[in-house]
Amino acid sequence: MISTKLQNKQIQSLIKIGKKIGVALFWVLLWAVAAWWVDSSLVLPSPLDTLKGIITLSGDFKFFVSIGVTLLRVFGGVTISVALGLVLGLIGGLNKPFYEIMNPFVSIIKSLPVVSVIILINLWIASGVVPLVVTFLICFPVTWTNVVQGVHATDDNLLQMAKVYNVSQQRIIRDIYIPAVKPYAVSALMNAIGLGWKVTVTAEVLANALPSVGMNLYYSKIYLETDLLFSWTFVIVMCSYIIEKVTLYIIERNKRKGADQCQLS
């Protein structure tokens, strides 16, 4: 019986993988047909030209240096924004005066165009640090807003019960608010990762930050190397996809560990 269930799960997982591969192949085929119809690699390179471009780029050590530096900027900006957003968002959700002080700053940052933020920051600090700072500024409001919403959405019945039994504020935060905020924090993290990539690469281009993926994109456009432009774009998409999937895997694994520990206790 157990082996039959395992076989069914394996079959279902294989079907899901097959569907994803089928969808990917459909879009690659559509891309290849469009490239064949345009018949100009300068306008629209084929998937094969893009793959050749990736192979050419990977033969140069600077390719990996550029990816590594851009990854550091993305991770640095997202990590700082999420860490500060969690702490300050929790304080803002619990303390109304602090929320009223922070809210105008967050609202202004959210309403500013990314380009304006990049240009302003580039006036004040070195170009190599601009992408990291801009990524932090753009991703911070996302985390802060989500965490504040999580605090405000906490079950009032639990808070009233804690008040009746004179539970300390420290335990209320640890055992009631933080679990309530977790789903909002996870959502903020995933949004910050996706947004962080876009903002970092854009900031690298506008701030002339070297070495970087963004500047390689820019140079490919300047020198009309459309195949390399598509290759760098594909690299960005794949890096973002892998990071997102790894993050989701870590989150799901921690959830399973927490559930197992609850069952044991």
What is the strand and helix layout of this fold?
Blueprint: H1 2-38, H2 47-58, H3 61-94, H4 96-111, H5 114-124, H6 130-152, H7 156-164, H8 169-207, H9 213-222, H10 226-264
Helix pairs in contact: 2-10, 3-4, 3-6, 3-8, 4-6, 5-6, 5-8, 6-8, 8-9, 8-10, 9-10
InterPro entries: MetI-like, MetI-like_sf
Domain ABC transmembrane type-1: 67-247
Organism: Acetobacterium tundrae
A few lines on this structure:
With 265 residues, the chain is mainly alpha-helical. The chain has helices at 2-38, 47-58, 61-94, 96-111, 114-124, 130-152, 156-164, 169-207, 213-222, 226-264. It is flat.
Explain what this protein looks like in three dimensions:
With 265 residues, this protein is mainly α. The mean pLDDT is 87. The chain is built from ten helices and no strands. The chain starts with a helix and ends with a helix.
Question: What is the overall shape?
Answer: flat
Q: Could you tell me the number of beta strands?
A: 0
Separation, N- and C-terminal Cα atoms = 29 Å
- Oligomeric grouping of the chains: single chain
**Proportion in helices:** over 70%
- Uncertain regions: pLDDT < 50 for 5+ in a row? none
| Helix-and-strand structural type | mainly alpha
Order of helices and strands: HHHHHHHHHH
Number of helices: 10
Q: Quote the beta fraction.
A: under 5%
Main beta-sheet annotation = none
